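Reviewer 2 asked us to include a model.

Predict the structure of this chain.
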Amino acid sequence: MVDWEVVIGLEIHAQLATRSKIFSGAATAYGAPPNTQASLLDLAYPGVLPVLNAEAVRMAVKFGLAIGATVARRSIFARKNYFYPDLPKGYQISQYEHPVVSRGSLNVLLDDGTVKTVGITRAHLEEDAGKSLHEGLANASGIDLNRAGTPLLEIVSEPDMRSAKEAVAYMKKIHTLVRYLEICDGNMQEGSFRCDANVSVRPRGQEKFGTRAEIKNLNSFRFVEKAIQHEVARQVELIESGGKVVQETRLYDSDKDETRSMRSKEEANDYRYFPDPDLLPVEIDEGFIATVRATLPELPDEKAARLARDLGLSVYDAGVLSASRELGAYFEAVLAHLSSAHAKLAANWVMGELSSALNRDSVDIAASRVSPAALGGLLARIVDATISGKIAKDVFEAMWAEGQSADDIIEKRGLKQITDSAAIEGVIDAVIAANPKQLADYRAGKDKLFGFFVGQVMKATEGKANPAQLNDLLKAKLGGSAQDA
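Predicted model (structure tokens):
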């Protein structure tokens, strides 16, 4: 049986976060009524001329610098000719032979802890097309040109990925990066971040690539993984049954979990690329690049390395906290109310209780019902032993629901830990006296019963006994004779 190797390359389309379109002054805001954000240029009226949006160029250069790529000092816009109902000009303005960014790379942390470097062939600027509307129009189709002319950065990888999971990990890393750079909001539901996947298979050890199929317009990480997995299985089955893979464009049907043929795959010469005569070449000088470089934030890998190095966090924790610029900022704001010695505690709570509450209630971290200062205040009460970690979880839920501070909730509900040794000893004595059989079994060697006694004391104190004191005192009591107890 042939051992098949999967070869994957992604073309990611990131909508740039400019306020106006790439070649016109029309707005790019999402959700406007159809055709209310389409200028005469977007409608392809005769005689109109495109004017390049400098902010789109700045964002492309920012991305190029972040991936260590070559930023072209001279790049050219071309016309990519094809017919589509929502492309009124009959061509798309894109870049072909001379893109603004080329030859970069990105390190991707995989599930098994290894780091894979994925090459990025190019990142070029282009305009988006419009959108065909079908719902509620009976036997007709409508055209909405609000998206026409929206600036896109198309990020084309090398065919370096060897599994669907690797492709998803790479796509997530790009998603994190463009959001860190604040050049794309990454909203996949609104179409701001989507990808086409080029998939082929070949016998392992063979250098020559197999015939690839392109799966178009995947707008979720889950769909990317499932579409690639299905396409790989389809190609392997086809080849092993004596057929041949045809180079084509396919669509992924998430309801049926299958890909289906859309059209034969065009080659570059089918698009009749030629330089756009209405747009001058883009000249980028060193001063412009230096200015953009000065605006680069701390990038995800840099943040993760700093959190691990300076705070002693694990590589995993540092990676999770740096995967989102907002999550990392929240964590560091929480830690500002503690000391760096308690970084692990803060990380556990941000990745645990906070993230769980945000996901459960579908709340963005920017709108968290518990502020970083409030969470820092809660964790400070764990650190100074005012409350236990278990009680802190109940306090957090109350903070989330009621918007009150940890101190107010602890005071009103009488949740302070019992740290008086004499008081804890009194409860321990009562629990031991009430459970003579368990005491005898423990002293006979059934050490697991220690947890039973801890639970009984905690139950009697409503979870308020200081856990460390309780353990020490209980060990001393259980270690003595029955008469001593």
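The first strand starts at residue 4 and ends at 15. Residues 480-485 have pLDDT under 50 and may be disordered. We have added this to the supplementary material.
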